[in-house]
Amino acid sequence: MRRTLVYVDRQALSLSPDELGWFGALNQVLQQTMTTAEPLEMVVLDSAEGTAKSYGPTLCYPVIEERYHERFASSGISGLLTNDLIDQLPDLQKEIVFQMQDQVGPGYVGAPETRRQQLAQRMDDRHLLRALQSDAARFDGDLPTRVILYSDMIENSDLAGLEAVLAADGEQRLELAAAAVDGLPRLDFQGAMVYGFGTGAALEDPAATEALSGFMQQAVYLANGYPVDFSRELAVRAVRPSSVARYDMEIEAEGRMLKGRMQLMADASGRLTDSFLDLGTGNRSAHFDSGRLICSQDERCQLEGKLATALLFEDPENVFMDGNRGSLSGHLGFRNDRLADSDNPALLPLEAEVRP
């Protein structure tokens, strides 16, 4: 259904692996949100050098013992949900924590001895975007991907200077991010949903968090990713997806037909998570900030969601669609129940067909 890719910037680590406050937050999120047999990859970044390195194979969440491998291959996830496996779940979850720590541990070798806060003027060169680009091959494939990045999000290189990022307003940060991404043509998140935490932790200026968050979100977005949240804390909603559907989209806007794509991932109650709508042209894509996809036993579905950023209007739009699971139709915009849909200028027709 999905894979999770965790990047850990060694420049955000202290020398002692006993100080794992960030790891506790990460592990709690994974326990709450990952699905059975979801692939989990751990990669250590070195933003001082602009490199990335994996210290182990892809993990399976939770750890699946060898005696269950044949059953999984023949029956899929449903074959794992037996009482004997459920009884083992706490031990299996503990085992994957140890495996995660083993893969991150080598990153502490040579990491900074402390996490002292510094002035921006004294910050050494940092190449976080180059480090992410160096691992671009990991994004090949069509499986939906969630990225969790633990870093202070500092870029201080020839691509973008830290002092310029901190001094810029929103429009200027967009220009800086665009120039940085143009300088890294292989940086492509290929539609991944991206979360970041630890933002601004290395700097004395408390306002740095907002500036660095804005810059990194713009960079991720321009590199074909969906930035969901970048802050000091790990703000991932506790939603464990149970269904995923990917659609080809058409919307009539500005006198022409736009084509794009939509990904809907929902939990058992229909709450959306890691879902997006992409109109396929310019900066016209956004993730769903909230919403529900409700389907009946006969596969009739209703979708109602709110986008996080504006696509065609001045404010973030809502999406209203219904139909069968394979074919949805509806509107993008602002519904006004006092007006007929055909006469409502704030609604644009939207069609979606499930991707083969």
Topology summary:
Layout (H helix, E strand, L loop, with lengths): L2 E7 L11 H13 L4 E9 L4 E3 L5 E3 L7 H7 L7 H22 L21 E2 H6 L11 E6 L4 E2 L5 H6 L2 H13 L10 E5 L10 H15 L3 E6 L11 E11 L2 E11 L9 E3 L6 E11 L4 E8 L10 E7 L2 E7 L13 E8 L2
Parallel strand pairs: 1-2, 1-6, 6-8, 8-9
Antiparallel strand pairs: 2-3, 2-4, 5-7, 10-11, 10-17, 11-12, 12-13, 13-14, 14-15, 15-16, 16-17
Helix pairs in contact: 6-7
Overview features:
356 residues, 8-stranded antiparallel beta barrel, 7-stranded mixed beta sheet, globular
Give me a quick take on this structure.
With 356 residues, this protein is of the alpha+beta class. The protein has seven helices and 17 strands. The protein has helices spanning 21-33, 69-75, 83-104, 128-133, 162-167, 170-182, 208-222, and strands spanning 3-9, 38-46, 51-53, 59-61, 126-127, 145-150, 155-156, 193-197, 226-231, 243-253, 256-266, 276-278, 285-295, 300-307, 318-324, 327-333, 347-354.
